[in-house]
Amino acid sequence: MDLKNLTITQIQELLFSKKITAVEIVNFYLERIKKIDSQIKAFITVTEKEALKKAKVIDEKIKKGESVGKLAGAVMAVKDIFLTKDIKSTASSQVLKGYIPQYSSTVYQKLIDEDAIIIGKTNTDPFAFGGSTENSGFFTTKNPWNLSKVPGGSSGGSAAAVAADLCQFALGTDTGGSIRQPASLCGISGLKPTYGLNSRFGITAMASSFDCPGVFAKNIADLALVTQITAGVDSKDATTVDNPVPDYSKLLKDVNLKGLKIGLPKEYFSDPINSEVKDKVMLAAKEFEKKGATLVDISLPSTNLGIAVYYVLVPSEISANMARYDGIRFGQNTGNNPDIISYYMNTRGKYMEAEVKRRIIIGTYALSSGYYDAYYTKASKVRTLIKNEFVDALKNVDIILAPVSPTTAWDIGAKANDPLQMYLADAFSVCINVAGIPSVALPCGFDSQNLPIGFQLIGNFFEESKILSVAHQYQQFTDYHLKETPLSRGDARRAEGF
Amino acid sequence: MKITPIIGLEVHVELKTKSKMFCSCSAEHFHVDPNTHTCPTCLGLPGALPVPNKTACEWCIKLGLALGCTPNESSFFERKNYFYPDLAKGYQLTQYEKPFVINGKITVDGQEIRINRAHMEEDTGKSVHIIQNGEELTLIDYNRCGVPLVEIVSEPDITSAQMAKNYLLKIQQIIRYLGISDADIEKGSMRCEPTINLKIEDNNQTFYTPLAEIKNVASLTGVQSAIDFELNRQLEEFKQTGEVKSKTNKTTRGWDADKNQTFLQREKEGSADYRYFPEPDIPHIEFTRSEIEAIKSTIPELPDEKVARYLNDFGLSDYDAKTITADKDFAQIYESVVNLKVDQSFAKFVANLFLGSIKTHLNETGEELNKNKINPKYFLNLFESVQKSEISATVAKQVIIDSYQIGQDPVEIAKNNGLIQVSDTGTIEKLVQEVIASNPKAVEDYKKNPMSIGFLVGQLMKLSKGSANPQLAKEVLEKLLS
Amino acid sequence: MSEPKISMVDLEHIAKLARINLTESEKTIFLPQLESVLEYLDVLNQVNTDNVEPTFRVNDQKNVLRDDLIKDSFDQKTALSSASKTQDGYFVVPGTIKK
Question: What is the interface pTM, i.e. ipTM, of the complex?
């Protein structure tokens, strides 16, 4: 049975009507992983044993007529920065090579408590530091649409796995675009929720006031279903918000596109946007207009400051969050050294990847004596300006539509030696993280090289329902989200970009 | 040359909350197997997050209020970044810009010492340095990592080692009154770090010596000795080098209790860059006015207030009042007795027994005062008996100890042991005659110097095994000897 | 072109502050990269932020506090399970600390 392009709900219908077993579902994905993953390398760890074991338990329960969790039958991949108890979690860094965590992240635990089945841990930029998954301390993941291209990052492995149908949905994190950008580059959907909706407990911390755990899937309905489970206050994460979690699935149909005011921020449709991307995203806007929505030109003048704010504050928080990686309680270390300072320096120096070091150094610099006010305080004030601009704009429009990435997927290695170039590719994604508001990315077409193009729908704080339902509507009258990668079609030649 | 010591004290107090500051591990770390009270948060594991202990925050405010501080309307935690193996996260959660409370003061020996601030932070783990097979190794136990600490910073208003010691005793007493910590300096639940320099006035010029912060002072006498040593050392060094205080020459010195001297630990303290920034994982904290009032209402009568009340209501001497109130429990037990009868002479009577017989007995047995062994009614009975001259003061001091030990009414004890005071003139006269007969020399001395009657009275008391009424004995002696 | 924002000496100082050893070739590669990033960040200096409050935390929350209750800790074995060197229940710092 071909499970591609089915929603979780549809798969569960098959499962509960006994047309398929959970073990068969897992084997479907395991076989695809065995066939395809050697080409795209989305996975660091494939949890074949655990997945089959869980599947058997679910099948037994169904056979006996016992109740199962809300995600029974849903197979997921998990970004390797999520700690998964007893399952190797490396954050794609040599620092944590071989690390078996003693506890699980809250979001992961919530999902397996509802009987989601983990099929593997996915590749990422190390500790999520990056926008292409090329910085991984182990290997690079390839874009399933074209194996010479990056899948985006940092959650590139998760995006590629979903795009190539190696799992039903996948977990990622979005600190500056790391869900939305790989979703766009891989032609799938991804939700960055409001900061504080999902618990960060048990996920290696990158930037504490920016990190948002979220979900990838091929369709919006799955995003809604999974977010329903992951969302909610966690007593172990003081930054989660104690709001009741809406029934996102039920609310998906609860939108009227007629009269919906969609803001198009002019700063997002100018330099550095690529013309093909701009065309396809504008086309998406026009599709909404055809259905009765009103397109409104808006301006978010501080957009061009987003990257600077981001690259001051995020490395600053990174520099402190990475201080615990000293090889004493966990992680690799360089053994005996002449003194304690050289122990720290050699251990961290040996195992940390270049991008990890770069960000720690930028952050340490920005926080250091004499620079704190000029960088950290200043950037925090500009952060207020950016946040207020979104809030003000959303008083006059219902939702904001914008591109996610200025370009489609680029060649592997093209930006490797120019970190600043890599950072500038975040131009259209970071401001949403700076503000803390939610955004969902979904596909809206392809460029002339058949590489996916995505757009994002941005809402106000805790407006996940609104943006998901608008996105869901879009997927009712378009079919970009149903397109298969060349790899999925078994078209290896096409995948190599010929 | 006029030399004025300038001393500020930083005190760290370990709160005796049940759980740690930012996680729910037990805060117990004495005589506990290593690394058995840890979790992802206090071990600094990847992905772990802190959630502050409400009671700890309230106790910090409580302590601040007791020290006369003002609570900040809004307060937050910050990260203090540095690397050391016993600091699991590579940063300590503390408060910098907005501590819970600021601007207090306490009075020590009539001198006002201002308190700059009191804030919350977390303790580090414990390092044990060993030598194994010729190799130096450090072992780490994280049980203590994350235990709540309140840091109290005084202004440099202290001008001598003695004043420093008294300041610390006062702080310790207040903390113990509040019941928020054992504040035991030897056990490390109260730690003190003096920062010292000198003001030297010479020939119309004023100089300040460089600041020195002294660490590892593990006892009160240690604090005094360290301060005295350092004041002397700084003076000598100034005479030699003339170096004055600057922004970059503050040093950290350790205290060597064996050699009785301070030694340089870290040069140029100014270059330790902690890169403080607000903690993003913990929302800020605001206590409302009514919450602060509620916390304030849990503050018991503090030592200074109690002493003033004892002086006023009980007519006790300053010394006696201070001695009784040194320990809150001791004072409370005293009050439970005294409250039975509003009478200054009763209060003084009880004070004398508590500070005399009972305290002596406790010192001998090494016990703490046990409130179950104190029956207020017994004291009242004893008092009334003494008032009636049934029991002499001397006997009272003895039977109260017996009463404490066996739990019987002391008046009963006196009766059963034939210690009821003899106030019968006839019996006294017989005793007087015996004393006169046995002490001819003393009688002669008396005839020359009437002030020496005391010896004969004493002899009579001895003869009567303390049961004679001494006043009556004196009168009868004088009568019969005249 | 104005003064470089970060010299090699600065870089070495920051690397030590962050406790990260950089090889000579890393230093050579990083320095211009960091310089270009830091120059880029200068754009913030031109922004007028008078009377703007900084945003340190995104949500408006306050007073997220925990009752003083004890919950289960790791047992000793679990706490030590990921360390490369332990002894008698302690973590061993694989390096010498000069007292």
Answer: 0.95
